[in-house]
């Protein structure tokens, strides 16, 4: 029988939150399991998947990167510690290990494609952890032609992505004002509320 019950602690992730004061967010198995199971159905992640672990597993997005790949039976590749954070080494590793799936922050991925190298082998580019600019979306569409691009959103307290938007194969809502991409729709068992400035629900 399983040693852990659904309400037992799965992990604690420390975050500064909006206050700047670090605090531990306790995540139970009941919170963690549904989001991982949902994403295994949502993403085309399977034994064919080859991901390069770039995010620290002390960050919930990094833990997601690790667990979804393993649970899908995919291959997880690691960079040596002295090469982590180096865009050129990272790009070399994508080619050397035939990596087809990347989970990263928009700022790091922006550094990668700023090198001017095409990434035709990437099938999934999943970005999160900060706002995704529309300008970066256009650059990704050029550098990784044919990839499936996803914009994920979610604070640590909501257990990884509480909303996501597939960006590929759709216009970038050019009629909507603003410089960032929309965050999409709720994931797993999450619910999103859209409120006005007074905190009242709007359509």
Descriptive account of the structure:
With 203 residues, the protein is α/β, with parallel strands linked by helices. It has five helices and nine strands, in the order ββαβαβαβαβαβββ. Strands 5-6-7-8-9 form a five-stranded mixed sheet, sandwiched between helices. Helix 1 crosses helix 2. The mean pLDDT is 88.
List keywords for this structure.
two-stranded antiparallel sheet, globular
**Biggest sheet overview:** 5 strands, mixed
Determine the N-to-C terminus distance.
46 Å
The helicity comes to: 25-40%
The total strand number stands at 9
Give the rounded overall mean pLDDT. Answer: 88
Radius of gyration: 17 Å
Question: What structural category characterises the helix and strand content?
Answer: alpha/beta
Lateral arrangement of strands in the main beta sheet: 5-6-7-8-9
pLDDT < 50 stretches: none
Number of helices: 5
Shape summary = globular
What is the strand content?
15-25%
The helix-strand sequence is EEHEHEHEHEHEEE
């Amino acid at each position: 029988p399983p040693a852990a019950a659904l309400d037992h602690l799965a992990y604690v992730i420390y975050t500064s939150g909006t206050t700047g004061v670090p605090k531990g967010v306790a995540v139970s198995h009941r919170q963690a399991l549904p989001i991982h199971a949902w994403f295994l159905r949502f993403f085309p992640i399977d034994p064919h998947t080859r991901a390069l672990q770039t995010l620290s597993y002390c960050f919930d997005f990094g833990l997601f990167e690790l667990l979804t790949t393993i649970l899908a039976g995919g291959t997880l590749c690691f960079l040596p510690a002295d090469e982590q954070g180096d865009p050129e080494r990272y790009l070399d590793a994508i080619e050397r290990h035939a990596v087809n799936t990347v989970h990263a922050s928009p700022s790091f991925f922006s550094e990668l494609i700023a090198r001017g190298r095409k990434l035709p082998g990437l099938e999934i580019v999943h970005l999160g952890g900060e706002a995704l600019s529309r300008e970066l979306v256009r650059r990704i569409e050029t550098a990784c032609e044919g990839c499936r691009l996803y914009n994920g959103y979610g604070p640590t307290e909501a257990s990884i992505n509480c909303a996501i938007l597939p960006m590929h194969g759709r216009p970038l809502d050019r009629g909507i004002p603003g410089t960032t991409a929309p965050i999409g729709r709720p994931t797993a068992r999450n619910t999103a509320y859209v409120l006005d400035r007074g905190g009242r629900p709007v359509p």
